[in-house]
């Protein structure tokens, strides 16, 4: 999945992958499992998700996003005043305790971003084809230490002909990608009417699962 694909999606407003509200599992499942507050949360490939705002109520939030349009839209649609500055190969957008690092996720390092109590992947891994998933996970692991909780949401479905994104990721896939980590599935449900975000998917048995992953 080339960078230009996602940049074009934002430019042409082809963003059916964007959820119009924060994920209900945040309040029903994740909230009670958060570390002691305040916490620092990292959200890779964050887009303009409302989940950023939800986590900002508990401490500092750092997001990684490729698209400048997505970063600008997040702040302007929320009515937030924000500053921007260059930081190496990235543009840093900031409003109070929210930072969005615009640019290549794979060029971000723990030395630049610091340590995190929580990493939240709502729609990053599922946006990547199989050949990119291992590279993504290996880079993501650099931001996870023994105190970090990774909450990862994946979708799985039956249809070999489906051209993602999103891409199907099974329990076995998660176990293999995080084979050296503790992996616990803490929630799962079937998506009604095969609806993923704003997109209706012509696939079979579409399910969404939430995993708690720790080192």
From TrEMBL:
Q: Which domain of life is it from?
A: Bacteria
Provide the primary localization.
cytoplasm
Q: What's an example GO BP annotation here?
A: methylation
Give residues annotated as binding S-adenosyl-L-methionine: 10, 45, 65, 122
Catalyzed reactions per annotation: S-adenosyl-L-methionine + a thiopurine = S-adenosyl-L-homocysteine + a thiopurine S-methylether
InterPro entries attached to this UniProt entry = SAM-dependent_MTases_sf, Thiopurine_S-MeTrfase, TPMT
EC number per UniProt: 2.1.1.67
Transferase: present as a keyword of the record? yes
Show the GO cellular component annotation of the record.
cytoplasm
One MF term in the entry's GO annotations:
thiopurine S-methyltransferase activity
- Keyword terms of this UniProt record: Cytoplasm, Methyltransferase, S-adenosyl-L-methionine, Transferase
Record localization: Cytoplasm
**What's this protein's family per the entry?**
Belongs to the class I-like SAM-binding methyltransferase superfamily. TPMT family.
Q: Which PANTHER family match?
A: THIOPURINE S-METHYLTRANSFERASE (PTHR10259)
Q: What protein does this entry describe?
A: Thiopurine S-methyltransferase
Taxon lineage: Bacteria, Pseudomonadati, Pseudomonadota, Gammaproteobacteria, Alteromonadales
Q: Which gene encodes it?
A: tpm
């Amino acid at each position: 999945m080339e960078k230009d694909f996602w940049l074009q999606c934002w430019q042409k407003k082809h963003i059916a992958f964007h959820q119009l509200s924060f994920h209900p599992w945040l309040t029903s499942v994740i909230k009670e499992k958060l570390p002691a507050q305040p916490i620092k949360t990292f959200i890779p490939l964050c887009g303009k998700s409302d989940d950023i705002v939800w986590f900002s109520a508990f401490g500092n939030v750092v997001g990684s996003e490729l698209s400048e349009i997505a970063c600008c839209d997040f702040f302007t649609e929320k009515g937030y005043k924000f500053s921007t500055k260059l930081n190496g190969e990235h543009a840093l957008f900031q409003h109070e305790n929210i930072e969005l690092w615009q640019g290549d996720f794979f060029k971000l390092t723990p030395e630049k971003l610091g340590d995190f109590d929580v990493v939240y992947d709502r729609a990053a891994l599922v946006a990547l084809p199989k050949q990119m998933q291992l590279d993504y996970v290996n880079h993501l692991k650099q931001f996870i230490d023994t105190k970090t909780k990774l909450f990862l949401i994946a979708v799985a479905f039956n249809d070999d002909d489906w051209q993602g994104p999103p891409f199907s990721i099974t329990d076995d896939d998660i176990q293999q990608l995080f084979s050296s980590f503790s992996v616990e599935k803490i929630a799962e449900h079937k998506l009604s009417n095969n609806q993923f975000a704003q997109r209706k998917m012509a696939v079979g048995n579409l399910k969404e699962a939430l995993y708690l992953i720790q080192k």
